[in-house]
């Protein structure tokens, strides 16, 4: 099917969105993530939704050794991010499609009844190696992702994972915010009591354990029962985890993450790779010409994809000066014509 090109961003195909942003398919290989213009006044008073994401991508793009397991960002603007497109959605829909559930309400999934089919272990091994490799790279940069779940693990044309959505990424050592069980474990005693800890390998690996559980068992922990927020905190705070009895290798890795075995994400990635090497079905990432894609993004803005004001900013210097001169000239002629009109009337 021929790709649908449009003159403005909102006329392109909408491919996703969340509380703060919408994502549009701008070219066959590029999507544009844009801040929602229909945010409420209360939402607009908070931190700009792209501040953390831009703060992460700026140092990432300065590195010469890019990580293939992270979604590339070709161009950052205050309200727009130009990102690499992953045509096979994310891991989450694949897993949810294999579940039988009660009817949900208001866009939420209903209670789990059963898992009809489980994911291929060779794919799980490949994905968890790629995800942990990305987290190891992020740790080397001095960051934590802080929002690891199946919906943020996008799948490219060859079903390789590219980790996305760095809207909660922070430097290591910041308080973990906006994350709850089963992806975080509350601290029940000590100086950090009542929090979910400081962003570190401890918090990241706990989320890895829960994500791997979802992939192996086909559902989130305790997905078949209704728990209050207090009960979620109690169970995970007291390390009352679901029984693990499906795959010896994967179960051991899940348990290691939930019990905070790994002091760094580098050691976690090494151990995951070592223990899943006999299961994995390897696949190479197709190379992305980042310089070419960045040039394409700038050309899209120059042509007016994001409106005339931004288009002017991306014009050559001589053309910007020419437009200023033309505008001033037009204003001068309008003033002269108006003066002539007043003289004739008087």
UniProtKB/TrEMBL annotation:
Pfam families: PK_Tyr_Ser-Thr
Gene Ontology terms for molecular function: ATP binding; protein serine/threonine kinase activity
GO cellular component terms listed in the entry, alphabetical order: cytoplasm
Annotated Protein kinase domain residues: 9-346
InterPro entries: Kinase-like_dom_sf (IPR011009), Prot_kinase_dom (IPR000719), Ser-Thr/Tyr_kinase_cat_dom (IPR001245)
Keyword terms of this UniProt record: ATP-binding, Nucleotide-binding
Example of a GO biological process term: intracellular signal transduction
Protein name (record): Protein kinase domain-containing protein
Classification of source organism: Eukaryota, Fungi, Dikarya, Ascomycota, Pezizomycotina
């Amino acid at each position: 099917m021929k790709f649908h090109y449009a003159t403005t961003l909102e006329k392109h195909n909408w491919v996703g969105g969340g509380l703060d942003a919408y994502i549009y398919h701008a070219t066959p290989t590029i999507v544009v993530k844009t801040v929602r213009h229909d945010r409420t006044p209360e939402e607009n008073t908070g931190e700009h939704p792209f501040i953390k994401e831009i703060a992460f991508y700026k140092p990432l793009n300065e590195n010469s050794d890019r990580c293939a397991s992270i979604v590339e960002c070709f161009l950052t603007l205050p309200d727009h991010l130009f990102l690499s497109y992953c045509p096979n959605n994310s891991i989450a829909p694949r897993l949810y499609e294999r579940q039988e559930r009660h009817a949900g309400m208001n866009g939420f999934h209903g209670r789990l009844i059963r898992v009809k089919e489980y994911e291929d272990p060779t794919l799980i091994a490949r994905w968890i190696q790629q995800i942990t490799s990305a987290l190891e790279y992020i740790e080397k940069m001095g960051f934590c992702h802080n929002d690891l779940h199946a919906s943020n693990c996008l799948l490219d044309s060859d079903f390789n994972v590219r980790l996305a959505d760095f809207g909660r990424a922070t430097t290591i050592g910041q308080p973990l915010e906006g994350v709850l069980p089963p992806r975080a474990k509350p601290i029940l005693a000590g100086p950090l009591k009542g929090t979910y800890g400081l962003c570190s390998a401890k918090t990241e690996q706990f989320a890895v354990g829960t994500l791997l559980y979802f992939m192996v068992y086909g559902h989130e922990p305790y997905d078949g029962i209704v728990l209050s927020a207090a009960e979620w905190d109690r169970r995970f705070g007291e390390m009352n985890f679901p029984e693990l009895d499906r795959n010896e290798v994967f179960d051991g890795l899940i348990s290691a993450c939930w019990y905070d075995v790994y002091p760094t994400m580098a050691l976690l990635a090494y151990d995951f790779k070592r223990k899943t090497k006999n299961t994995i079905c390897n696949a190479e990432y197709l190379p992305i010409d980042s310089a070419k894609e960045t040039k394409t993004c700038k050309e899209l803005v120059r042509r007016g994809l994001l409106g005339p004001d931004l288009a002017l900013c991306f014009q050559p210097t001589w053309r910007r000066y020419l437009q200023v001169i033309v505008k001033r000239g037009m204003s001068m002629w309008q003033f002269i014509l108006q003066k002539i009109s007043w003289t004739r009337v008087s």
